[in-house]
Give the backbone structure.
Amino acid sequence: MTRNYPSKVSIVEVGPRDGLQNEAQTIPLQAKTDFIHALARAGLNRIEAGSFVSPKWVPQMADSAQVFAAINRTPGVTFSALTPNDKGMQAAINAGVDEVAIFAAASEAFSQRNINCSIADSLKRFENVMQMANDQGLRVRGYLSCVMGCPYEGDIAPDKVADVCKTLLDMGCYEVSLGDTIGVGTPGHTHRLLDTLLRDVEATKLAAHFHDTYGQALANLVVALQYGISTIDSAAGGLGGCPYAAGASGNVATEDVVYMLNGMGIETGVNLNAVLAASNAMFGHLERKPTSRTYTAMLAKCNRSF
């Protein structure tokens, strides 16, 4: 069946949060804020800048309040943060975030391992968070993990994903980001998932958040685009991973997504060279190379740093 691609795609840059939270080394505050500013200058207007979670569990995000205090609030750019509970939500409000995100899993085992409660209990916990966000006029985005596979349960049934997705939307999330957290999905998985989800959920309320563990992320994104999904999560340089899934690699790289969409004639408003420069600077702090194929190819072609 022939499908039309969107003419424009909104890219949500998750590198400063979902990417950097997995790093073992401490990243200086200045490096984080420089990274965020560089991403904004590149034309990325939705940037996940931090997370208000317990520093015991995610030490890299312990300075999120300082990050939000230090970044320049570029007009037209939304700076968001992950908020797991009432305490985190209050901290996010105090920091002046533009938008918040909550998260759930489509896998019971992953939910228990990740946040020590069932899916139903995790959603119950977010009722106060949603009310606090509504009182502040803050939009809430939902993240849904393990939509195509779980490190503990294996394959996840699309119907199960649909149930949790609809619950998040019914709670008031304006959008749900579908996370292939361990990167096991293939185009076939993506077709089956979206065939099920789009029976009851509009494509405009969904985003694709694919990890590239098996090199399938771009192929899966093409399928998502065919179904009319026009929001893509990505991380500059391919930052990220999953601490609860051995071998899971990072998010699909923003550079690779932009390069692909440029070649498809799909508008993003993102400057590819500027993203490459942002990745180059951050990975310089990390003392390793990005996993982005586009970064590697263009670096070799230009024989220089960006």
The CA atoms of residues 37 and 72 lie 7 Å apart. The domain at 11-302 is CATH 3.20.20.70 (TIM Barrel).
